[in-house]
Amino acid sequence: MRRGAETKQQIAKRFGRRGAVVAVVFAAIAASLVARAVQLQVLDKDFLNRQADSRHVRSESINAHRGTITDRHGEPIAISTPVDSIWVDPQAIAPAIGRLAELAAELDIDGESLERRITRSMDKEFVWVRRGISPERTRDVLDLGVPGVNVRREYRRFYPHGEVTGHLIGFTDVDDLGQEGIELAYNYWLAGEPGEKRILKDRLGRPVENVESVRPAHHGKQLELSVDLRIQYLAYRMLKAAVRKYSAESGSIVILDVATGEVLAMVNQPAYNPNDRAQFKPDRYRNRAITDIFEPGSSIKPLVVAAALESGRFRPSSVIDTSPGFITVGAKRIEDRRNLGRVSLTTILARSSNVGVTRLAMELEPEHLWQTMTRFGLGELTSSSFPGESTGSLSHHSYWREINQATLAYGYGVSVTPLQLAHAYAALGGDGGMPPVSLLRIDQPVESVPTVHAETAAAVRRMLEEVVRPGGTGTKAAVPGYRVAGKTGTAWKSAVGGYSEDKYISIFAGLAPASAPRLAAVVVIDEPGGELYYGSDVAAPVFADVMAEALRLLAVPPDALPARDAGSVLSAMANDP
Protein backbone atom coordinates (compact mmCIF):
# COMPACT_ATOMS: atom_id res chain seq x y z
CA MET A 1 0.00 0.00 0.00
CA ARG A 2 2.83 2.34 0.91
CA ARG A 3 4.62 1.53 -2.26
CA GLY A 4 1.57 2.30 -4.22
CA ALA A 5 0.98 5.46 -2.21
CA GLU A 6 4.56 6.52 -2.69
CA THR A 7 4.18 5.83 -6.30
CA LYS A 8 1.19 8.12 -6.46
CA GLN A 9 3.08 10.85 -4.67
CA GLN A 10 5.96 10.45 -6.99
CA ILE A 11 3.60 10.58 -9.92
CA ALA A 12 2.00 13.72 -8.53
CA LYS A 13 5.39 15.34 -8.01
CA ARG A 14 6.45 14.31 -11.47
CA PHE A 15 3.34 15.83 -13.05
CA GLY A 16 3.80 18.90 -10.88
CA ARG A 17 7.30 19.38 -12.13
CA ARG A 18 6.14 18.85 -15.72
CA GLY A 19 3.32 21.30 -15.24
CA ALA A 20 5.72 23.85 -13.90
CA VAL A 21 8.00 23.31 -16.88
CA VAL A 22 5.06 23.67 -19.26
CA ALA A 23 3.91 26.77 -17.44
CA VAL A 24 7.38 28.22 -17.62
CA VAL A 25 7.60 27.37 -21.31
CA PHE A 26 4.20 28.97 -22.05
CA ALA A 27 5.12 31.95 -19.93
CA ALA A 28 8.37 32.28 -21.86
CA ILE A 29 6.51 31.98 -25.15
CA ALA A 30 3.95 34.52 -24.04
CA ALA A 31 6.70 36.84 -22.87
CA SER A 32 8.52 36.48 -26.17
CA LEU A 33 5.30 37.15 -28.08
CA VAL A 34 4.63 40.20 -25.97
CA ALA A 35 8.20 41.34 -26.47
CA ARG A 36 7.91 40.75 -30.21
CA ALA A 37 4.63 42.59 -30.30
CA VAL A 38 6.17 45.50 -28.44
CA GLN A 39 9.08 45.46 -30.86
CA LEU A 40 6.80 45.40 -33.92
CA GLN A 41 4.16 47.78 -32.65
CA VAL A 42 6.38 50.24 -30.84
CA LEU A 43 10.08 49.91 -31.50
CA ASP A 44 9.98 48.96 -35.20
CA LYS A 45 6.67 50.62 -36.06
CA ASP A 46 8.06 53.36 -38.31
CA PHE A 47 10.40 50.97 -40.10
CA LEU A 48 7.65 48.43 -40.75
CA ASN A 49 5.24 51.12 -41.91
CA ARG A 50 7.82 52.31 -44.39
CA GLN A 51 8.34 48.77 -45.62
CA ALA A 52 4.60 48.22 -45.97
CA ASP A 53 4.17 51.49 -47.77
CA SER A 54 6.98 50.64 -50.15
CA ARG A 55 5.10 47.47 -51.11
CA HIS A 56 1.48 48.58 -51.04
CA VAL A 57 1.24 52.39 -50.97
CA ARG A 58 1.87 54.22 -54.22
CA SER A 59 1.86 57.87 -55.25
CA GLU A 60 -0.38 58.51 -58.22
CA SER A 61 -0.89 61.70 -60.19
CA ILE A 62 -4.31 63.27 -60.51
CA ASN A 63 -4.73 64.51 -64.07
CA ALA A 64 -5.90 68.08 -64.48
CA HIS A 65 -8.87 68.64 -66.76
CA ARG A 66 -7.78 70.76 -69.76
CA GLY A 67 -9.77 73.95 -70.17
CA THR A 68 -12.50 74.23 -72.79
CA ILE A 69 -12.05 76.48 -75.83
CA THR A 70 -15.17 78.26 -77.04
CA ASP A 71 -16.11 80.75 -79.72
CA ARG A 72 -17.19 84.27 -78.81
CA HIS A 73 -20.74 83.06 -78.07
CA GLY A 74 -19.70 80.21 -75.77
CA GLU A 75 -20.02 77.43 -78.33
CA PRO A 76 -17.44 74.68 -77.50
CA ILE A 77 -14.64 74.32 -80.05
CA ALA A 78 -12.31 72.06 -78.05
CA ILE A 79 -13.31 69.95 -75.04
CA SER A 80 -11.68 67.20 -72.99
CA THR A 81 -13.55 63.93 -72.46
CA PRO A 82 -12.59 61.30 -69.83
CA VAL A 83 -10.93 58.13 -71.10
CA ASP A 84 -9.06 55.22 -69.50
CA SER A 85 -5.48 54.15 -70.13
CA ILE A 86 -4.14 50.67 -69.36
CA TRP A 87 -0.73 50.10 -67.80
CA VAL A 88 0.98 47.14 -66.17
CA ASP A 89 3.50 46.46 -63.42
CA PRO A 90 6.00 44.08 -65.12
CA GLN A 91 7.05 42.57 -61.79
CA ALA A 92 3.47 41.80 -60.80
CA ILE A 93 2.56 40.32 -64.18
CA ALA A 94 5.73 38.20 -64.45
CA PRO A 95 4.16 35.05 -62.90
CA ALA A 96 1.34 35.26 -65.46
CA ILE A 97 3.41 36.34 -68.47
CA GLY A 98 1.65 33.73 -70.58
CA ARG A 99 -1.62 35.64 -70.25
CA LEU A 100 -0.30 38.66 -72.13
CA ALA A 101 -1.79 37.20 -75.30
CA GLU A 102 -5.28 37.51 -73.77
CA LEU A 103 -4.61 41.11 -72.77
CA ALA A 104 -3.24 41.99 -76.22
CA ALA A 105 -6.24 40.42 -77.96
CA GLU A 106 -8.68 42.37 -75.81
CA LEU A 107 -6.88 45.64 -76.57
CA ASP A 108 -6.33 44.94 -80.31
CA ILE A 109 -2.55 45.22 -80.09
CA ASP A 110 0.26 42.91 -81.17
CA GLY A 111 0.90 40.26 -78.51
CA GLU A 112 4.53 39.61 -79.39
CA SER A 113 5.38 43.30 -79.34
CA LEU A 114 3.67 43.69 -75.96
CA GLU A 115 5.57 40.72 -74.50
CA ARG A 116 8.88 42.14 -75.69
CA ARG A 117 8.14 45.49 -74.08
CA ILE A 118 7.18 43.87 -70.80
CA THR A 119 10.12 41.50 -70.59
CA ARG A 120 12.55 44.32 -71.39
CA SER A 121 11.10 46.34 -68.51
CA MET A 122 11.19 43.83 -65.65
CA ASP A 123 13.22 46.28 -63.57
CA LYS A 124 10.44 48.88 -63.83
CA GLU A 125 7.08 49.21 -62.12
CA PHE A 126 5.18 51.02 -64.88
CA VAL A 127 4.68 50.35 -68.59
CA TRP A 128 1.92 51.83 -70.75
CA VAL A 129 -0.07 49.26 -72.71
CA ARG A 130 -2.93 51.17 -74.37
CA ARG A 131 -4.08 54.75 -73.86
CA GLY A 132 -7.39 56.45 -74.42
CA ILE A 133 -9.93 53.62 -74.39
CA SER A 134 -13.58 53.76 -73.38
CA PRO A 135 -14.72 52.85 -69.84
CA GLU A 136 -16.77 49.98 -71.31
CA ARG A 137 -13.68 48.46 -72.83
CA THR A 138 -11.80 48.95 -69.58
CA ARG A 139 -14.30 46.75 -67.77
CA ASP A 140 -13.71 43.97 -70.29
CA VAL A 141 -9.96 44.25 -69.73
CA LEU A 142 -10.26 44.08 -65.93
CA ASP A 143 -12.66 41.14 -66.16
CA LEU A 144 -9.78 39.09 -67.59
CA GLY A 145 -8.24 39.08 -64.12
CA VAL A 146 -4.65 39.38 -65.39
CA PRO A 147 -2.44 40.34 -62.41
CA GLY A 148 -0.51 43.61 -62.55
CA VAL A 149 -2.96 45.25 -64.95
CA ASN A 150 -3.98 48.76 -63.85
CA VAL A 151 -6.14 51.63 -65.10
CA ARG A 152 -5.48 55.35 -65.04
CA ARG A 153 -8.15 57.94 -65.78
CA GLU A 154 -7.01 60.51 -68.36
CA TYR A 155 -8.59 63.02 -70.73
CA ARG A 156 -8.63 63.11 -74.50
CA ARG A 157 -9.18 66.27 -76.52
CA PHE A 158 -12.18 66.34 -78.82
CA TYR A 159 -12.93 68.95 -81.49
CA PRO A 160 -16.68 69.07 -82.26
CA HIS A 161 -16.26 71.14 -85.43
CA GLY A 162 -13.46 69.12 -86.99
CA GLU A 163 -11.69 70.68 -89.92
CA VAL A 164 -13.80 73.85 -89.83
CA THR A 165 -11.68 75.12 -86.94
CA GLY A 166 -8.70 72.77 -87.26
CA HIS A 167 -6.09 75.23 -88.53
CA LEU A 168 -6.95 77.81 -85.91
CA ILE A 169 -7.29 75.54 -82.87
CA GLY A 170 -4.45 73.10 -83.57
CA PHE A 171 -4.24 69.93 -81.48
CA THR A 172 -2.74 68.28 -78.40
CA ASP A 173 -0.49 65.25 -78.04
CA VAL A 174 -1.30 61.98 -76.28
CA ASP A 175 -0.50 63.64 -72.95
CA ASP A 176 -3.04 66.40 -73.71
CA LEU A 177 -0.38 69.10 -74.14
CA GLY A 178 -0.78 71.69 -76.91
CA GLN A 179 1.26 71.06 -80.06
CA GLU A 180 -0.12 73.50 -82.63
CA GLY A 181 -2.33 76.56 -82.96
CA ILE A 182 -4.32 77.97 -80.06
CA GLU A 183 -3.75 74.76 -78.11
CA LEU A 184 0.00 75.51 -78.16
CA ALA A 185 -0.14 79.30 -77.84
CA TYR A 186 -2.31 79.15 -74.70
CA ASN A 187 -1.18 75.82 -73.30
CA TYR A 188 -0.16 77.52 -70.03
CA TRP A 189 -3.75 78.73 -69.60
CA LEU A 190 -5.52 75.57 -70.72
CA ALA A 191 -3.37 72.79 -69.27
CA GLY A 192 -3.84 73.34 -65.55
CA GLU A 193 -1.63 71.67 -62.94
CA PRO A 194 -1.80 67.92 -62.10
CA GLY A 195 -2.36 66.86 -58.49
CA GLU A 196 -1.04 63.92 -56.50
CA LYS A 197 -2.54 61.34 -54.15
CA ARG A 198 -1.42 58.20 -52.27
CA ILE A 199 -3.36 54.98 -52.74
CA LEU A 200 -3.22 51.54 -51.11
CA LYS A 201 -2.92 48.55 -53.43
CA ASP A 202 -3.28 44.82 -52.80
CA ARG A 203 -0.66 42.20 -53.65
CA LEU A 204 -1.90 42.09 -57.25
CA GLY A 205 -1.41 45.81 -57.64
CA ARG A 206 -5.11 46.64 -57.63
CA PRO A 207 -6.20 49.88 -55.92
CA VAL A 208 -7.89 49.26 -52.57
CA GLU A 209 -8.44 52.73 -51.16
CA ASN A 210 -7.20 56.30 -51.29
CA VAL A 211 -4.84 56.98 -48.40
CA GLU A 212 -4.45 60.75 -48.64
CA SER A 213 -4.49 63.70 -51.00
CA VAL A 214 -0.99 65.13 -51.34
CA ARG A 215 -1.79 67.96 -53.75
CA PRO A 216 -5.14 68.77 -55.39
CA ALA A 217 -5.34 69.12 -59.16
CA HIS A 218 -5.92 72.61 -60.55
CA HIS A 219 -7.96 72.28 -63.73
CA GLY A 220 -7.26 74.36 -66.81
CA LYS A 221 -9.19 77.56 -67.47
CA GLN A 222 -11.73 78.17 -70.19
CA LEU A 223 -10.55 80.19 -73.20
CA GLU A 224 -12.99 82.33 -75.16
CA LEU A 225 -11.89 83.09 -78.70
CA SER A 226 -12.84 86.03 -80.89
CA VAL A 227 -14.05 83.69 -83.63
CA ASP A 228 -17.74 83.63 -84.51
CA LEU A 229 -18.51 80.03 -85.45
CA ARG A 230 -21.37 81.11 -87.70
CA ILE A 231 -19.03 83.20 -89.83
CA GLN A 232 -16.28 80.57 -89.54
CA TYR A 233 -18.57 77.90 -91.03
CA LEU A 234 -19.68 80.33 -93.72
CA ALA A 235 -16.11 81.18 -94.74
CA TYR A 236 -15.07 77.52 -94.63
CA ARG A 237 -17.91 76.45 -96.90
CA MET A 238 -17.38 79.25 -99.42
CA LEU A 239 -13.61 78.77 -99.58
CA LYS A 240 -13.85 75.01 -99.98
CA ALA A 241 -16.30 75.42 -102.84
CA ALA A 242 -14.06 78.00 -104.56
CA VAL A 243 -10.89 75.91 -104.28
CA ARG A 244 -12.74 72.97 -105.83
CA LYS A 245 -14.40 75.08 -108.50
CA TYR A 246 -11.14 76.61 -109.70
CA SER A 247 -8.99 73.50 -109.05
CA ALA A 248 -6.71 75.62 -106.89
CA GLU A 249 -3.76 74.41 -104.84
CA SER A 250 -4.91 76.15 -101.67
CA GLY A 251 -6.79 79.12 -100.30
CA SER A 252 -7.28 81.30 -97.23
CA ILE A 253 -9.88 83.70 -95.85
CA VAL A 254 -9.41 86.10 -92.93
CA ILE A 255 -12.18 88.30 -91.54
CA LEU A 256 -11.45 90.97 -88.92
CA ASP A 257 -13.64 93.25 -86.86
CA VAL A 258 -12.48 96.72 -87.92
CA ALA A 259 -13.16 98.34 -84.55
CA THR A 260 -11.55 95.78 -82.26
CA GLY A 261 -9.08 93.85 -84.43
CA GLU A 262 -10.76 90.57 -83.41
CA VAL A 263 -10.44 87.66 -85.83
CA LEU A 264 -14.03 86.65 -86.56
CA ALA A 265 -13.08 83.93 -89.04
CA MET A 266 -9.88 82.33 -90.31
CA VAL A 267 -10.01 79.33 -92.64
CA ASN A 268 -7.72 77.54 -95.05
CA GLN A 269 -7.88 74.88 -97.71
CA PRO A 270 -6.86 72.10 -97.86
CA ALA A 271 -8.07 71.42 -94.33
CA TYR A 272 -7.51 68.63 -91.82
CA ASN A 273 -9.51 67.06 -89.00
CA PRO A 274 -7.72 67.40 -85.64
CA ASN A 275 -9.68 64.40 -84.34
CA ASP A 276 -7.84 62.16 -86.81
CA ARG A 277 -4.14 61.85 -85.98
CA ALA A 278 -3.51 60.15 -89.32
CA GLN A 279 -3.97 63.59 -90.90
CA PHE A 280 -1.28 65.27 -88.80
CA LYS A 281 1.06 66.35 -91.57
CA PRO A 282 2.68 69.81 -91.64
CA ASP A 283 1.48 70.63 -95.15
CA ARG A 284 -2.09 70.03 -93.98
CA TYR A 285 -2.23 71.42 -90.46
CA ARG A 286 -0.23 74.64 -90.83
CA ASN A 287 -2.35 77.78 -90.69
CA ARG A 288 -1.58 79.31 -94.09
CA ALA A 289 -3.43 82.53 -93.24
CA ILE A 290 -0.72 83.31 -90.67
CA THR A 291 2.35 81.32 -91.67
CA ASP A 292 2.40 81.52 -95.50
CA ILE A 293 3.55 84.64 -97.32
CA PHE A 294 2.80 85.85 -100.83
CA GLU A 295 3.41 88.90 -102.98
CA PRO A 296 0.16 90.91 -102.78
CA GLY A 297 0.14 92.28 -106.31
CA SER A 298 -2.31 95.11 -106.92
CA SER A 299 -3.99 94.67 -103.54
CA ILE A 300 -1.16 96.77 -102.07
CA LYS A 301 -1.91 99.78 -104.30
CA PRO A 302 -4.35 101.45 -101.83
CA LEU A 303 -1.53 101.59 -99.28
CA VAL A 304 0.74 103.30 -101.80
CA VAL A 305 -2.00 105.83 -102.59
CA ALA A 306 -2.41 106.43 -98.85
CA ALA A 307 1.33 107.10 -98.58
CA ALA A 308 1.08 109.57 -101.45
CA LEU A 309 -1.78 111.47 -99.78
CA GLU A 310 0.10 111.47 -96.47
CA SER A 311 3.13 113.03 -98.15
CA GLY A 312 1.15 116.24 -98.74
CA ARG A 313 2.26 116.32 -102.38
CA PHE A 314 -0.92 114.74 -103.70
CA ARG A 315 -4.63 115.17 -103.18
CA PRO A 316 -7.53 112.85 -104.12
CA SER A 317 -8.11 115.07 -107.18
CA SER A 318 -4.47 114.84 -108.34
CA VAL A 319 -3.93 113.63 -111.91
CA ILE A 320 -1.18 111.26 -113.08
CA ASP A 321 -0.15 110.93 -116.72
CA THR A 322 0.14 107.23 -117.63
CA SER A 323 0.88 107.82 -121.33
CA PRO A 324 1.94 106.03 -123.45
CA GLY A 325 0.66 103.10 -121.36
CA PHE A 326 4.02 101.92 -120.10
CA ILE A 327 7.04 103.10 -118.14
CA THR A 328 10.61 101.83 -118.18
CA VAL A 329 12.53 101.64 -114.91
CA GLY A 330 16.05 100.43 -115.39
CA ALA A 331 15.80 97.40 -117.64
CA LYS A 332 12.18 96.64 -116.72
CA ARG A 333 9.18 97.75 -118.73
CA ILE A 334 6.01 98.19 -116.66
CA GLU A 335 2.79 98.21 -118.67
CA ASP A 336 -0.94 98.69 -118.43
CA ARG A 337 -3.39 96.71 -120.53
CA ARG A 338 -4.02 99.88 -122.49
CA ASN A 339 -3.03 103.51 -122.42
CA LEU A 340 -5.29 105.24 -119.89
CA GLY A 341 -3.74 108.70 -120.47
CA ARG A 342 -4.14 111.28 -117.72
CA VAL A 343 -6.09 109.74 -114.85
CA SER A 344 -7.01 110.57 -111.26
CA LEU A 345 -5.85 108.60 -108.25
CA THR A 346 -9.32 107.10 -108.09
CA THR A 347 -9.01 105.79 -111.63
CA ILE A 348 -5.57 104.38 -110.90
CA LEU A 349 -7.17 102.17 -108.26
CA ALA A 350 -10.43 101.49 -110.09
CA ARG A 351 -8.62 100.43 -113.28
CA SER A 352 -5.61 99.02 -111.39
CA SER A 353 -3.04 101.00 -113.37
CA ASN A 354 0.48 99.69 -112.81
CA VAL A 355 1.96 102.64 -114.66
CA GLY A 356 -0.02 105.20 -112.67
CA VAL A 357 0.83 103.74 -109.26
CA THR A 358 4.48 103.31 -110.25
CA ARG A 359 4.76 106.97 -111.28
CA LEU A 360 3.06 107.89 -108.01
CA ALA A 361 5.45 105.80 -105.90
CA MET A 362 8.52 107.11 -107.72
CA GLU A 363 7.53 110.66 -106.73
CA LEU A 364 7.72 109.75 -103.03
CA GLU A 365 10.76 109.72 -100.79
CA PRO A 366 11.79 106.08 -100.21
CA GLU A 367 11.92 106.63 -96.46
CA HIS A 368 8.38 108.05 -96.39
CA LEU A 369 7.01 105.17 -98.47
CA TRP A 370 8.78 102.61 -96.28
CA GLN A 371 7.60 104.22 -93.06
CA THR A 372 3.99 104.24 -94.25
CA MET A 373 4.15 100.58 -95.23
CA THR A 374 5.69 99.75 -91.87
CA ARG A 375 2.93 101.59 -90.01
CA PHE A 376 0.44 99.45 -91.92
CA GLY A 377 2.18 96.42 -90.39
CA LEU A 378 4.09 95.12 -93.40
CA GLY A 379 7.27 93.27 -92.52
CA GLU A 380 6.27 92.91 -88.86
CA LEU A 381 4.49 90.38 -86.68
CA THR A 382 0.94 91.14 -85.68
CA SER A 383 -0.11 90.81 -82.04
CA SER A 384 -1.90 87.50 -82.65
CA SER A 385 0.73 85.47 -80.71
CA PHE A 386 -0.03 82.55 -83.02
CA PRO A 387 2.82 79.99 -83.19
CA GLY A 388 4.81 80.13 -86.40
CA GLU A 389 3.47 83.48 -87.57
CA SER A 390 5.50 84.99 -90.40
CA THR A 391 6.66 88.60 -90.50
CA GLY A 392 6.40 88.76 -94.25
CA SER A 393 9.11 90.70 -96.03
CA LEU A 394 9.70 94.42 -96.47
CA SER A 395 13.33 95.40 -96.92
CA HIS A 396 14.61 98.63 -95.41
CA HIS A 397 14.49 101.62 -97.73
CA SER A 398 18.27 102.05 -97.47
CA TYR A 399 18.61 98.86 -99.54
CA TRP A 400 16.19 99.94 -102.24
CA ARG A 401 17.19 100.63 -105.79
CA GLU A 402 14.93 102.48 -108.15
CA ILE A 403 13.44 99.24 -109.47
CA ASN A 404 12.62 98.07 -105.93
CA GLN A 405 10.55 101.17 -105.27
CA ALA A 406 8.83 100.78 -108.62
CA THR A 407 7.85 97.11 -108.21
CA LEU A 408 6.78 97.66 -104.61
CA ALA A 409 4.11 100.01 -105.91
CA TYR A 410 2.20 97.17 -107.56
CA GLY A 411 2.99 94.45 -105.04
CA TYR A 412 6.24 92.73 -106.02
CA GLY A 413 9.41 92.54 -103.97
CA VAL A 414 7.30 92.66 -100.81
CA SER A 415 5.47 89.77 -99.17
CA VAL A 416 2.64 89.56 -96.65
CA THR A 417 0.43 87.03 -94.94
CA PRO A 418 -3.36 87.11 -95.44
CA LEU A 419 -3.70 88.25 -91.82
CA GLN A 420 -1.25 91.15 -92.34
CA LEU A 421 -3.10 92.33 -95.43
CA ALA A 422 -6.47 92.16 -93.67
CA HIS A 423 -4.98 94.07 -90.75
CA ALA A 424 -3.73 96.83 -93.06
CA TYR A 425 -7.17 97.17 -94.66
CA ALA A 426 -8.73 97.28 -91.20
CA ALA A 427 -6.63 100.40 -90.57
CA LEU A 428 -8.14 102.01 -93.67
CA GLY A 429 -11.59 101.01 -92.43
CA GLY A 430 -10.89 102.39 -88.97
CA ASP A 431 -10.10 105.92 -90.12
CA GLY A 432 -6.37 105.27 -89.97
CA GLY A 433 -6.41 103.63 -86.54
CA MET A 434 -5.03 100.07 -86.46
CA PRO A 435 -6.30 97.98 -83.52
CA PRO A 436 -4.09 95.10 -82.36
CA VAL A 437 -5.01 91.73 -83.85
CA SER A 438 -6.70 89.52 -81.28
CA LEU A 439 -7.65 85.85 -81.41
CA LEU A 440 -9.38 86.24 -78.03
CA ARG A 441 -12.73 87.91 -77.44
CA ILE A 442 -12.45 91.55 -76.40
CA ASP A 443 -15.12 93.11 -74.21
CA GLN A 444 -13.61 96.53 -73.67
CA PRO A 445 -12.55 99.37 -75.98
CA VAL A 446 -9.14 98.93 -77.59
CA GLU A 447 -6.49 101.52 -78.27
CA SER A 448 -5.63 101.71 -81.95
CA VAL A 449 -2.22 102.60 -83.34
CA PRO A 450 -2.33 105.51 -85.83
CA THR A 451 -1.20 104.70 -89.36
CA VAL A 452 -2.53 107.53 -91.54
CA HIS A 453 -4.80 110.49 -90.93
CA ALA A 454 -8.56 109.90 -90.84
CA GLU A 455 -8.99 112.11 -93.92
CA THR A 456 -6.51 109.97 -95.85
CA ALA A 457 -8.22 106.72 -94.86
CA ALA A 458 -11.65 108.08 -95.79
CA ALA A 459 -10.38 109.31 -99.17
CA VAL A 460 -8.84 105.94 -100.01
CA ARG A 461 -12.07 104.15 -99.04
CA ARG A 462 -14.05 106.37 -101.41
CA MET A 463 -11.59 105.52 -104.18
CA LEU A 464 -11.88 101.81 -103.41
CA GLU A 465 -15.65 101.98 -103.77
CA GLU A 466 -15.10 102.80 -107.43
CA VAL A 467 -13.16 99.52 -107.80
CA VAL A 468 -16.36 97.59 -107.08
CA ARG A 469 -18.69 99.80 -109.12
CA PRO A 470 -19.26 99.36 -112.87
CA GLY A 471 -16.07 100.17 -114.75
CA GLY A 472 -13.80 98.99 -111.94
CA THR A 473 -11.89 95.72 -111.77
CA GLY A 474 -13.78 94.35 -108.75
CA THR A 475 -17.43 94.49 -109.77
CA LYS A 476 -17.92 90.81 -108.81
CA ALA A 477 -17.19 91.73 -105.19
CA ALA A 478 -20.32 93.88 -104.94
CA VAL A 479 -22.75 92.99 -102.15
CA PRO A 480 -26.43 93.83 -102.78
CA GLY A 481 -27.65 96.46 -100.32
CA TYR A 482 -24.18 97.44 -99.14
CA ARG A 483 -21.43 99.76 -100.26
CA VAL A 484 -18.16 97.86 -100.61
CA ALA A 485 -14.61 99.23 -100.76
CA GLY A 486 -11.95 96.83 -101.96
CA LYS A 487 -9.14 95.97 -104.33
CA THR A 488 -8.37 93.06 -106.58
CA GLY A 489 -4.92 91.57 -106.95
CA THR A 490 -3.34 89.03 -109.28
CA ALA A 491 0.29 88.12 -108.77
CA TRP A 492 2.61 85.81 -110.62
CA LYS A 493 4.20 83.25 -108.35
CA SER A 494 7.94 83.28 -108.01
CA ALA A 495 9.84 80.42 -109.60
CA VAL A 496 13.43 79.45 -110.27
CA GLY A 497 15.04 82.26 -112.22
CA GLY A 498 12.15 84.70 -111.94
CA TYR A 499 8.37 84.39 -112.08
CA SER A 500 6.16 81.65 -113.43
CA GLU A 501 4.04 82.55 -116.43
CA ASP A 502 1.26 80.08 -115.65
CA LYS A 503 0.98 80.11 -111.84
CA TYR A 504 -0.89 82.91 -110.13
CA ILE A 505 -2.26 84.02 -106.78
CA SER A 506 -5.72 85.61 -106.90
CA ILE A 507 -6.54 88.12 -104.17
CA PHE A 508 -9.34 90.37 -103.06
CA ALA A 509 -9.12 92.57 -100.00
CA GLY A 510 -11.97 94.78 -98.91
CA LEU A 511 -14.18 96.52 -96.38
CA ALA A 512 -17.93 96.57 -95.77
CA PRO A 513 -20.08 98.49 -95.37
CA ALA A 514 -17.94 101.24 -96.86
CA SER A 515 -19.90 104.06 -95.20
CA ALA A 516 -18.91 102.80 -91.72
CA PRO A 517 -16.74 99.70 -92.12
CA ARG A 518 -17.52 96.84 -89.74
CA LEU A 519 -15.58 94.02 -91.41
CA ALA A 520 -12.25 93.76 -93.22
CA ALA A 521 -11.68 90.59 -95.22
CA VAL A 522 -9.03 89.07 -97.45
CA VAL A 523 -9.55 86.17 -99.85
CA VAL A 524 -6.50 84.43 -101.31
CA ILE A 525 -6.77 81.64 -103.89
CA ASP A 526 -3.42 80.03 -104.70
CA GLU A 527 -2.77 78.70 -108.20
CA PRO A 528 -6.29 78.55 -109.62
CA GLY A 529 -6.48 76.24 -112.61
CA GLY A 530 -8.34 76.73 -115.85
CA GLU A 531 -8.84 79.93 -117.80
CA LEU A 532 -9.94 82.13 -114.88
CA TYR A 533 -7.16 83.26 -112.59
CA TYR A 534 -7.55 87.01 -112.08
CA GLY A 535 -8.47 88.20 -108.59
CA SER A 536 -11.49 89.91 -110.13
CA ASP A 537 -12.83 86.58 -111.43
CA VAL A 538 -11.75 84.14 -108.71
CA ALA A 539 -11.34 85.86 -105.34
CA ALA A 540 -13.83 88.73 -105.69
CA PRO A 541 -16.97 86.53 -105.97
CA VAL A 542 -15.91 84.61 -102.86
CA PHE A 543 -15.56 87.89 -100.97
CA ALA A 544 -19.05 88.95 -102.09
CA ASP A 545 -20.67 85.68 -101.01
CA VAL A 546 -18.95 85.58 -97.62
CA MET A 547 -19.48 89.25 -96.84
CA ALA A 548 -23.16 89.21 -97.80
CA GLU A 549 -23.93 86.43 -95.32
CA ALA A 550 -21.57 87.72 -92.61
CA LEU A 551 -23.18 91.16 -92.62
CA ARG A 552 -26.61 89.56 -92.39
CA LEU A 553 -25.54 87.34 -89.48
CA LEU A 554 -24.16 90.37 -87.63
CA ALA A 555 -27.33 92.35 -88.37
CA VAL A 556 -25.34 95.20 -89.95
CA PRO A 557 -27.79 97.69 -91.50
CA PRO A 558 -27.57 98.06 -95.30
CA ASP A 559 -26.11 101.36 -96.48
CA ALA A 560 -26.99 101.12 -100.18
CA LEU A 561 -30.68 100.27 -100.40
CA PRO A 562 -32.23 101.11 -103.78
CA ALA A 563 -34.13 104.39 -103.77
CA ARG A 564 -37.90 104.22 -104.10
CA ASP A 565 -39.82 106.98 -105.87
CA ALA A 566 -42.51 108.88 -104.01
CA GLY A 567 -45.30 107.43 -106.16
CA SER A 568 -44.50 103.85 -105.28
CA VAL A 569 -44.27 104.73 -101.59
CA LEU A 570 -47.69 106.46 -101.61
CA SER A 571 -49.17 103.52 -103.52
CA ALA A 572 -47.82 101.06 -100.98
CA MET A 573 -49.22 103.15 -98.11
CA ALA A 574 -52.63 103.33 -99.77
CA ASN A 575 -52.78 99.57 -100.26
CA ASP A 576 -51.69 98.87 -96.68
CA PRO A 577 -54.83 97.84 -94.72
Short description:
The chain has about 575 residues and is α+β, with helices and mostly antiparallel strands.
Mind explaining what this structure looks like?
The structure is a single chain. This protein is α+β, with helices and mostly antiparallel strands. The chain has 2 domains: 59-224, Penicillin-binding protein 2a (Domain 2); 229-553, DD-peptidase/beta-lactamase superfamily (Beta-lactamase, 3-Layer(aba) Sandwich), CATH 3.40.710. The chain has helices spanning 2-43, 45-56, 90-93, 100-107, 111-119, 135-143, 166-169, 181-185, 187-190, 229-245, 282-285, 288-291, 301-310, 345-350, 354-362, 366-375, 402-409, 418-429, 454-468, 539-553, 566-575, and strands at 57-62, 69-70, 76-88, 127-133, 149-158, 195-201, 207-215, 223-224, 250-257, 263-269, 319-321, 326-329, 332-335, 342-344, 433-434, 449-450, 485-495, 498-512, 519-526. Strands 2, 3, 4, 5 and 8 form a 5-stranded mixed β-sheet that branches. The longest helix has 42 residues, at 2-43. The radius of gyration is 38 Å and the shape is elongated.
- The CATH topology of the largest domain corresponds to Beta-lactamase
Cα shape: elongated
Q: Averaging pLDDT over every residue, what do you get? A: 88
Q: Uncertain segments of ≥5 residues (pLDDT<50)?
A: 572-577
Per CATH, the architecture of the largest domain is 3-Layer(aba) Sandwich
* Total discrete domains: 2
**Main beta sheet strand tally, sense and closure:** 5 strands, mixed
DSSP strand content? 15-25%
Distance between the termini: 147 Å
CATH superfamily of the largest domain: DD-peptidase/beta-lactamase superfamily
How many helix segments?
A: 21
